[in-house]
Amino acid sequence: MTDTDMKIDPQRAAALVSQIKTVRERIAAVARGRDVRLVAVSKLKPANDILALVQQAEPPQLHFGENYAQELSQKAELLPRNIQWHFIGGLQSGHCKSLAKIPNLFCVSSIDTEKKAQLLDKYRGEYLSSLSTLSPSSSSSPSPSPVPGKINVHIQVNTSGEPTKSGCPPGPSVVSLCRTVSSLPNLHLLGLMTIGAVARSVATTPDTENEDFERLRQQRDLVASELGLEPQHLELSMGMSEDFEGAIVAGSSEVRVGSTIFGARGPKSEAKIKV
Ligand SMILES: *Cc1c(COP(=O)(O)O)cnc(C)c1O
């Protein structure tokens, strides 16, 4: 199956296009001219929902976020190569190899240990050198796919301190993990990411402060000063359906929005990639 024989229901496509337009307008209304990346979180949603937004949103939506490594690999295989994929789910060491082989993987946003950073770097390096030993792709290739390169990385920070949340603890651990990622040849440190406490996110409006967002910004400033970087060169990935406007007011560079675009998600056991 290729994207040319994937069926798109026109009514569903129109609803998705209208919902993403509304989210884009809500972002622009609070961003004060700053560029804020919208990652459309498509986990557990079928591939043709994604294709509808690639083909019919104006401008096309190309950044999509997924939580499950296998689901992401399958969708990446099926869908156009100009999509920029984000892995935002809980990362296990065992996922690093398959993720590293996705040519158009734009970012892994859930790096929280040195070991996972090192594995992702190592496997990306192996993947990139396997490409360069293949016969050089002919320059007449019609494919517009970008050449695979480094994987961008956000360090996930556990800003809420909840033991059930993954993420690197704030402070020296975050600094040291950022230093490691900066030194790895096949990864690029893009910034920091947090999910934050649900209770706080529900209570967040554009006018209230959210401790998780404040804490992530403090961690960003700490990392910047320890690594000798300009703070504005490190991204903050924070904000989801419940709280993305408040997150942008608090300085977010990237919001990850799922249900407000795609609707509520059913159970994982009922999710289908091809419908
Ligand atoms: C699912 C998910 C989102 C999107 O959540 P919505 O509430 O559906 O917008 C964002 N970030 C992460 C890490 C997620 O797992």
UniProtKB/TrEMBL annotation:
The protein's name in its UniProt record: Pyridoxal phosphate homeostasis protein
Keyword terms of this UniProt record: Pyridoxal phosphate
Biological role stated in the UniProt entry: Pyridoxal 5'-phosphate (PLP)-binding protein, which may be involved in intracellular homeostatic regulation of pyridoxal 5'-phosphate (PLP), the active form of vitamin B6.
Residue ranges, annotated region (Disordered): 131-150
Domain Alanine racemase N-terminal, chain residue ranges per copy: 25-265
A GO term for molecular function: pyridoxal phosphate binding
Family of the protein in this entry: Belongs to the pyridoxal phosphate-binding protein YggS/PROSC family.
PTM sites of type N6-(pyridoxal phosphate)lysine: K43
Biased composition (Low complexity): 131-142
Species of the source: Daldinia eschscholtzii
Record Pfam families: Ala_racemase_N (PF01168)
PANTHER family cross-referenced by the UniProt entry: PROLINE SYNTHETASE CO-TRANSCRIBED BACTERIAL HOMOLOG PROTEIN (PTHR10146), PYRIDOXAL PHOSPHATE HOMEOSTASIS PROTEIN (PTHR10146:SF14)
Tagged with keyword Zinc-finger: no
Names of required cofactors: pyridoxal 5'-phosphate
